[in-house]
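Hey, I'm writing a tutorial for new members on how sequence and structure tokens pair up, and I'd like a real worked example in the thread rather than a made-up one. If someone can provide the structure for the chain below, I'll link this post from the tutorial.
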Amino acid sequence: MRILVADDDPQLLRALRITLTAKGYKVLIARNGAEAISVAIDHRPDLYLLDLGMPELDGLEVIEAIRGWSEAPILVVSGRSGAGDKVDALDAGADDYVTKPFSIDELLARIRALSRRVPQAGGEPVVVFGDVSVDLAAKSVVRTVGGDSTHVRLTPTEWQVLELLVRNAGRLVTRQMLLTSIWGSEHVNDTGYLRLYLSQLRRKLEPVPSSPRHLLTEAGMGYRLVLQPDDAA
């Protein structure tokens, strides 16, 4: 079972890595929120342990991003003990909340309880918008026009951009999330990359690339994949 531990406290990360590894878990480490999302996308953990007060992206933003495409249990491990913080985390999509300092026995018990909720492995969905079908498992895109189906060739980066949008269909995907997840936190201001790749995706997937109906720009914020434009108002 893969557990992602995201916290900016190096001593806590080291202690949890040693303890959880000794209990038979495979431990993935992230030192900030942006790294947590990147590791999550690359390795698809079965369970998350997240701090709220992380740099670059805070814990709530990480929870919201993960919930766009994963149902894996999320256990918040935070020094924030206020009721409002707990409510905000649970409303964002967390499954449980432990306040620091904590008993390692309690933490392990909560992990065991949450691990029983881990979804069974199954096929990735096929997402359809307009005349485009995206198979997440096969990493393939098919466009059907007039009854004729054609496989659309995407570059690896085009696929990464599209996959993030598909897994968050209907939701705003911020420029920061896209840039951090694909190119790393050092490129968080390089929005020209996104304009280029969205333009290429629209050219390949939109009926009228200059008037996109599915791959939409949210001015000043990011992008959104709309599956059914007529219902998007």
